[in-house]
Design a protein that fits this description.
With 180 residues, the chain is of the alpha+beta class. It has a single domain, classed as Jelly Rolls, CATH 2.60.120.1140. The protein contains 4 helices and 8 strands. It has helices at residues 6-18, 67-72, 149-153, 164-170, and strands at residues 2-3, 45-52, 55-64, 84-99, 107-112, 118-125, 133-146, 160-163. Strands 1, 2, 3, 4, 5, 6, 7 and 8 form an 8-stranded mixed beta sheet that branches. The radius of gyration is 17 Å and the shape is globular. This is DUF192 domain-containing protein. InterPro entries: DUF192, Saro_0823-like_sf. Residues 1-28 form the signal peptide.
């Protein structure tokens, strides 16, 4: 799965069309540059729970937190077990646009809103498609699961999503809490 913000796309187009030269600082997590050519190694994992009308559904998810991990996502992987997935943790709520370039398996793409609830689901995203799959509004995270699993388990828009990483993002900082 590949993710790219509109700002990065605009910069890439400007650089390609205008001969503009720009040097950006190097980041350790972006050490591997260029188009991905192979699946990335397994990422750190955590348990993620979706609470729906049909019950609690637990998944072991890899956490894609760096730009490179998010760009590569599930690309080139040939299987995704029903109880696993990948969560993309955005640094701030944002429009999340995904596509399936170099992704060989169908995925359900679940967009998680500021309230920790599912705001939209794209079921059975087509492998290797370049069609954009949009969150249609700000998301704090995007979750990729095995294609068809949300329908099979009765997971729907409005269901609550919880994990250590998501819960930490949702927690208000102590300095932001009002005292009465």
């Amino acid at each position: 799965m590949n993710r790219q913000t509109f700002g990065t796309l605009f910069l890439s187009l400007a650089l390609a069309s205008g001969g503009l030269s720009l040097t950006l600082p190097a980041h350790a997590d972006d050490a591997a540059s260029g188009a991905p050519t192979a699946a990335q190694p397994p990422l750190p994992k955590e348990t993620l729970t979706i609470t729906s009308a049909s019950g609690k559904h637990e998944f072991t998810v890899e956490k894609a937190t760096t730009l490179r991990e998010q760009q590569v996502g599930e690309m080139f992987r040939t299987t995704l077990p029903a109880d696993q997935g990948m969560v993309f943790l955005w640094s701030a709520p944002q429009q999340s646009d995904m596509w399936m370039e170099n992704t060989l398996i169908p995925l359900d793409i679940v967009f998680i809103g500021n309230d920790g609830r599912i705001q939209s689901i794209a079921e059975n995203a087509v492998p290797q498609s370049l069609a954009h799959i949009s969150s249609h509004g700000p998301a704090v995270a995007t979750l990729e699961l095995q294609g068809g699993i949300t329908a099979k388990m009765g997971i729907t828009v409005g269901d609550r999503v919880s994990s250590a990483s998501l819960d930490a993002k949702m927690a208000r900082p102590a300095s932001a809490k009002k005292s009465h």
